[in-house]
């Protein structure tokens, strides 16, 4: 008697599972009549090109102003010099990567130098001008903040 009852209960349970699976698949299989095509946004990633742009347009001229030796390679617990940080390494909208440049000296907290944005597609680097409250061309910003013609500033020797 128990064997028959168990078989009937198992068969009923199997029918319930099959029926509910069929109802779920039928409900999800029906797509709306008019479906809009969703195009995922293309993400742009920070690459070697962006690093070279920041190096050539900001790091080198600012190193002359702050007398930072860029050729010195040293592994240290507290590195000194100019370093930039990006807000994100991938851009979802627009073509700009946003970052900040800081000058570090030993283990002290870095001194804020500037906020910048880079458009690698157009080879542009723009720096945020605090007075004008907008992004300006990097050469205009360097002339205003790094003194006259950063190319003419000689780097002094450090020992």
Can you give keywords for this protein?
disordered C terminus; 159 residues; 24% strand; five-stranded antiparallel sheet; 7 strands; two-stranded antiparallel sheet; alpha+beta; elongated; 3 helices
Write the layout of secondary structure elements.
Layout: H1 2-29, E1 44-45, H2 48-66, E2 81-86, E3 90-91, E4 96-104, E5 111-119, E6 124-129, E7 134-137, H3 138-145
Antiparallel strand pairs: 1-3, 2-4, 4-5, 5-6, 6-7
Can you describe this structure?
- This protein is an alpha+beta fold and 159 residues long.
- It has a domain of 109 residues.
- It has 3 helices and 7 strands, in the order αβαββββββα.
- The strands form 2 sheets. It has a 5-stranded antiparallel β-sheet with strand order 2-4-5-6-7. Strands 1-3 form a two-stranded antiparallel ribbon.
- Strand 4 and strand 5 form a beta hairpin.
- The radius of gyration is 30 Å and the shape is elongated.
What is the 3D shape? elongated
Q: Which structural class should the secondary elements be placed in?
A: alpha+beta
SS summary, helix count = 3
* Total strands: 7
What does the largest sheet look like?
5 strands, antiparallel
Poorly predicted sequence stretches spanning 5 or more consecutive residues: 149-159
What is the H/E string? Answer: HEHEEEEEEH
Distance from first to last alpha carbon:
98 Å
């Amino acid at each position: 008697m128990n064997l028959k009852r168990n078989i009937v209960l198992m068969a009923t349970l199997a029918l319930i599972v099959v029926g509910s699976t069929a109802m779920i698949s039928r409900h999800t299989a029906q797509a709306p009549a008019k479906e809009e095509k969703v195009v995922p946004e293309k993400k742009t990633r920070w690459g070697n090109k962006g690093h070279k742009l920041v190096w050539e347009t900001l790091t080198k001229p600012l190193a002359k102003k702050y007398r930072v030796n860029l050729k010195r390679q040293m592994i240290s617990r507290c590195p000194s010099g100019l370093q930039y940080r990006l807000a994100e390494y991938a851009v979802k909208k627009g073509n700009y990567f946003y970052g900040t440049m800081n000058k570090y000296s030993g283990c002290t907290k870095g001194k804020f130098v500037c906020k910048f944005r880079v458009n690698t597609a157009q080879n542009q680097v723009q720096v945020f001008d605090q007075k004008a409250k907008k992004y300006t061309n990097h050469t205009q910003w360097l002339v205003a903040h790094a003194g006259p013609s950063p190319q003419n500033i000689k780097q002094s020797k450090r020992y």
